Amino acid sequence: MALAALAPFLAALLTPFIHSLAGRYSGWVLATVPAGIFLLLLGVSEPVIAGGTIAASFGWVPSYGLTLSFFADGLSLIFALTIAGVGTLIILYSGAYLKGHRHKGRFLAYMLSFMGSMLGLVLADNMLALFMFWEATSVTSFLLIGFYHNRQAARRGAIQALVITNIGGMCLLVGVILAQHLSGTWLLSELRGLGGVLKDHALYGLVLALFLGAAFTKSAQFPLHFWLPNAMEAPTPVSAFLHSATMVQAGVYLLARMTPVLGGTAVWTGVLVAFGGVTLIWGALGALRETDLKQILAQTTIASLGLLVLLIGLGSEAAIAAMLVYFVAHACYKAGLFMVAGAVDHEAGTRDITALGGLADKMPVTFIGAALAALSMVGLPLTVGYFAKEEMYLALVGGDWLMLFVLAVLVVGNALLAGVALIVMIRPFLGDALPTPKNAHEAPVAMLAGPILLGGVGVVAGLLPDWLSADVLAPGAMAILGHAVEPHLKLALDLASPLIWLSALTWLLGIVVFRQAQAIRTVLRRLSAGIGWNADTAFDAVMFGLIRFAATVTRALHHGKLEFYLLAVFAALAVALFWPMLALGGLDWIVPTAELGDWSKRLVLPDLRPYEWGVVLLAVLGLLAVLIAQSRLIAILSLGIQGTALALIFLLFGAPDLAFTQLMVEVLSVVILTIVMTNLRLDARDHRPFEDWARDGTLAVVCGAGVSLLLMLVLTGTLDTRLSDFFTATSVPIAHGANIVNVILVDYRGFDTLGEISVVMGAGIAILALLRRRKKTEETGP
To answer: What pLDDT score does 375 carry?
Structure first.
């Protein structure tokens, strides 16, 4: 399992090298990676089909009990096989679609990372690992949607997708942490066996809201659906993969996986059925409003995602079976149709169905792929889509009036999708031939393999209902429901069953929708224009307001006045010093008491030798020299006296390393300040108004007094040597260093030290850049 999840990432790292060697055949070579994963998963599927699981785990953060765990049951195996199978054809398709593109290698690396993220998500057992892969799908999709980064629409679509899905990601993170806190486990395999531990808890509503927020953003449920059509700015291979087996299916998987833990309640059913039904109708109507093939298919994906969420919400055996079969059917026909749309655009030069017609003569194989996929989308007999439709109707027939209303929504939604499928299959390929920007011709083999094979799977699998029931439906439903589900898919048509008549009604309404598509499109566009705004425009307004707010805050806080920055920093330091002392009674020594006497008996003063007082006097003289300096140069040199005195204090108290470091810092500081100040007049004195002098002087005295008082109060307590004892005991055996100070800096505080070095390096580079810029300005003139 771990190999299946991590292999695409390794392949992505090697992709630039492979692409440089394989060239135009890099797509064929890299397609072997998902193909190998598909065969690997098939090879281990037998115990899963029998109702078992396969697990693997590795130590991740052992000190916190975290393991990087993967497992495969019927549900995750269906998703993983679909991702790997469709991914093989998508990678193959990508190699031909981006033939000659100078960033083709980069694109293929992104695609493999995208695939690995989704595989890791559906195979992860540890909920934190699931979150990690969840966010990885958002990041990789951002890179893929914005691949054509020179286009503003692509950049906007990528940012919009990242913002919306990351909101869901934060919901998922909080939900995962809360679920672990309430259940005591990070593992999904253990969580589903704990029964109602979450459903019976008072925080069930919060946990449910968090997981639904994550799923709804990722799977584009109304009203969070608007990012998905804008993601069509990505290259067509991305759209084909994102809409069929990855990214948007992550939310569906999460809901299915959490059904045993959070499902079965009235809130769960009501929310999922309501939002799923609205999303189904909204997406189907949105598809009829569009004329661009990719936009049409994107809107139908929204509708299909709503349908899947609705079925999960119903939660019955028939509904879950319908969800699983429909997921497979949708993955096959949607990937195939997107690849058909890409082939038409690639070879004819347009995706507008009003400008296409008669392509079947010029692109016969592409038409066959489109027809096979569309038939499954319509749900005609002998296709997987037919069984999915039959199962979802079976889940609602014979129910109460509310279930009958949901059944009506499904019939209308399926009819609208059937009408759209007929539009996609017939409008571009049949009828009178129309002139196109390019001389249309058949696509390359690599671009045809996907539509033909996936369309064929949608039909062949429909001819094998026993296999579909036993090897797909049964193990997947068992993983969700927790008990065995009796397979019952059959090829026979029972005219006495209401299901066949509901299907016939769906097909009839689909034909009506197809024939009235132009009129429906006109009405929908008029309604949209009449409203004048939608969720997409609302998002733009929110983002614009957020940017304006950020700019206002930036102007208020980062106005470039260094004096104000220093004043704010030292004022905060004064508060941080005195507030704890006041709150914790650290200043009670000021008031004499009978028991303790005056303050001198309760406050430890430093006991210094005469030469140590001499060093303190040197520091005071340096301070006075800075204050009365008659020029900037004298002030800079006097400032070095302070650091030198501090270095002497370190030296006197047994810290020669710190003394040497402090001395070097002071030398460098004086040198750098002198170099920088060469751009100013060093013989001038900075005049300061009395109010500035009084304000800054008071603040300096307060901060200095606060530090001194705090240190003296610390000395009154008992020294806790646990940390120093730990450093002394572990410096040699663990860090292999006898110099404890160096070990602390390099090992125990390694990242802190690295950060300090990075800051110093950044400041040095900035200073160098300023000096070089001034030099160039002086040489070339203004």
So the answer is: 92
